[in-house]
């Protein structure tokens, strides 16, 4: 943990409150987000400097409705504030395990759309890291040199991407669903050298707060808002403990943020599932070099991408059509060689694909 010399017992409630406010002010300088989101992210930044005092570490799941809402920018801002940051894109399971065990960084993982598209062994290890690394003492077995070692994978983690995450990982996360800012939301352009210099004080204050109150955080048992279920209570407990020590308006703000963001979780899950489905459909059309696909071909490839079910319902032609209908996409009878079968045309996806990324040219027609 990175920290400066502690303030000691003389630190006042106002001092602690000012420290957290300085962190939040820096975040909102560069990223447009709601009050509840800003409070959660601020508390999480403080938590990264004292995560070893907690029994669980909440994950941040930063997603958006389409591109250009500030997901990567949020990770870049967090990199300047959190303890021992490691900002990275796509990574293999073995590399992730070794890095966490060695350095216990604050993992800032971008482009999670591609997180689970590697080989089966790597995907399994990634899931193991993210499932086990949420709780103190979480370990993953790793084969190395003919022997098996158990490596420690407990550390703070934040993910950014359009697509959703597996349910077990999503349940361990605080959803931060960003939207494109309006004309009334002014944020500054992030210039790396200037921002890094500006971040020195808020980062130092977050580290100093954590160092001062490490023992108190380890012993804290904060009151949990009634609407939170057991999993959400585990997720929010470390952040509520920080808020209670900060004092001032932070205890009530933190609990309001917890209730608000947990209530938004269902909507966020629905939206991220829909956008991940669009992204994977686009990848399939591109990989198969096709302008039209049989429904069965599209389904088979989606199953290969891990779409076994949606909300507990097995993926079939009816469920696929149901989820695409909201984007104005419907199957139709198409000719494939001598057969006329139900299928989808790439051009019917084009308007929806603009939501997740600029549409690339669809290749010349290949019958599949």
Put the structure in a nutshell:
The protein has helices at 13-30, 35-48, 71-79, 93-103, 120-132, 167-170, 192-212, 214-219, 230-246, 250-287, 295-304, 317-325, 350-356; strands at 59-64, 85-88, 106-109, 139-144, 147-152, 157-160, 173-178, 292-294, 309-310, 313-314, 332-336, 339-345. It has 368 residues and is an alpha/beta fold. α1 (13-30) runs antiparallel to α7 (192-212) and α9 (230-246) crosses α10.
Topology:
Blueprint: H1 13-30, H2 35-48, E1 59-64, H3 71-79, E2 85-88, H4 93-103, E3 106-109, H5 120-132, E4 139-144, E5 147-152, E6 157-160, H6 167-170, E7 173-178, H7 192-212, H8 214-219, H9 230-246, H10 250-287, E8 292-294, H11 295-304, E9 309-310, E10 313-314, H12 317-325, E11 332-336, E12 339-345, H13 350-356
Parallel strand pairs: 1-6, 1-7, 2-3, 3-6
Antiparallel strand pairs: 4-5, 8-12, 9-10, 11-12
Helix pairs in contact: 1-2, 1-7, 2-9, 2-10, 4-5, 9-10, 10-13
Describe this structure in words.
Helices cover 48% and strands 15% of the residues. A 5-stranded parallel β-sheet has the order 2-3-6-1-7. A 3-stranded antiparallel β-sheet has the order 8-12-11. Strands 4-5 form a two-stranded antiparallel sheet. The longest helix has 38 residues. The radius of gyration is 22 Å and the shape is globular. It is α/β, with parallel strands linked by helices.
Helix content: 40-55%
Q: Structural class per helix/strand content?
A: alpha/beta
The CATH topology of the largest domain is Rossmann fold
Beta strand count = 12
Biggest sheet, spatial arrangement of strands: 2-3-6-1-7
For this structure, what is the CATH homologous superfamily of the largest domain?
A: P-loop containing nucleotide triphosphate hydrolases
Provide mean pLDDT, rounded.
83
- Give the low-confidence spans: 1-10, 357-368
Largest sheet: 5 strands, parallel
Please report which band the strand proportion falls in: under 5%, 5-15%, 15-25%, 25-35%, 35-45% or over 45%. 5-15%
Task: Give the name of the CATH architecture of the largest domain.
Answer: 3-Layer(aba) Sandwich
Rg, nearest Å: 22 Å
Return the string of H and E elements. Answer: HHEHEHEHEEEHEHHHHEHEEHEEH
Instruction: Give the number of helices.
Output: 13
What CATH first level of the largest domain would be assigned? Answer: Alpha Beta
Terminal-residue CA separation: 55 Å
Structural domain tally? 2
The 3D shape can be described as: globular
């Amino acid at each position: 943990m990175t920290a400066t010399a502690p303030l000691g017992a003389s630190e006042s409630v106002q001092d602690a409150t000012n420290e957290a406010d300085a962190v939040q002010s820096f975040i909102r300088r560069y990223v447009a987000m709601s009050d509840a989101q800003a409070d959660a992210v601020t508390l999480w930044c403080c938590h990264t400097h004292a995560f070893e005092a907690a029994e669980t570490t909440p994950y941040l799941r930063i997603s958006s409705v389409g591109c250009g809402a500030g997901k990567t920018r949020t990770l870049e801002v967090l990199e300047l504030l959190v303890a021992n940051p490691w900002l990275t894109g796509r990574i293999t399971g073995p590399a992730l395990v070794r890095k966490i065990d060695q350095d216990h960084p604050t993992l800032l993982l971008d482009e999670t759309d591609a997180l689970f598209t590697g080989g089966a062994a790597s995907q399994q290890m990634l899931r193991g890291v993210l499932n086990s690394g949420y709780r103190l003492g979480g370990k993953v077995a790793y084969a190395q040199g003919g022997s098996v070692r158990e490596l420690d994978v407990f550390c703070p983690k934040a993910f950014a991407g359009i697509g959703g995450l597996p349910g077990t990982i999503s349940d361990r996360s605080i959803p931060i669903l960003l939207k494109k800012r309006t004309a009334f939301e002014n944020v500054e352009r992030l210039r790396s050298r200037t921002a890094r210099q500006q971040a020195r004080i808020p980062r130092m204050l977050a580290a100093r707060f954590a160092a001062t109150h490490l023992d108190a955080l380890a012993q804290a048992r904060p009151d949990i808002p009634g609407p939170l279920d057991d999993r959400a209570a585990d997720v929010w407990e470390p952040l509520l403990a920080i808020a209670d020590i900060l004092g001032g308006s932070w205890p009530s703000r933190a609990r309001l943020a917890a209730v608000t963001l947990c209530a938004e979780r269902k909507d966020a899950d629905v939206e991220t599932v829909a956008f991940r489905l669009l992204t994977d459909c686009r990848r399939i059309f591109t990989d198969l070099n096709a302008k039209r696909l049989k429904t069965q071909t599209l389904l088979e490839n989606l199953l290969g991408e891990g779409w076994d079910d949606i909300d507990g319902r097995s993926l079939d032609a009816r469920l696929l059509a149901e989820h695409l209908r909201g984007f104005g996409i419907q199957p139709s009878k198409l000719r494939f060689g001598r057969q006329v079968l139900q299928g989808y045309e790439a051009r019917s996806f084009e308007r929806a694909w603009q939501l997740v990324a600029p549409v690339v040219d669809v290749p010349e027609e290949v019958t599949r």
